[in-house]
Amino acid sequence: MNRSIVLALFALAALVVACEEPKPQGASTTGGAATAPVVLDDKDIPTAADYDDQAEKDITETNYKSELDTLDKEISSQD
To answer: Rounded to whole angstroms, how far apart are CA atoms 62 and 52?
Structure first.
């Protein structure tokens, strides 16, 4: 008798679990508003060419030594 009661309880529990509605992917359990995905355009990401153009404007034959010293200090401070 005990075995049949236990089997009935397991069957009932399995039915309850099997009948649950699946939660949607990405649903927040905190109840907050969903955030929109971030969309980046290729123009938003700087490339090496962007930095080259800026360097050509900023660095001249007269100030290249001071610019190099500034870069050396920045690099050494990051270590």
So the answer is: 18
Contact 64, 56 (CB under 8 A): no
Domain boundaries, the chain: 44-79
The full DSSP string for 15-68 is HHHHTSPPPPTT--SS-PPPPPPP---GGGS--HHHHHHHHHHH--TTTHHHHH
At 11-69, the pLDDT tens digits run: 777 767 666 667 777 655 555 566 888 887 888 788 888 888 888 888 899 999 999 99
Fill in the amino acid letter for 48.
A
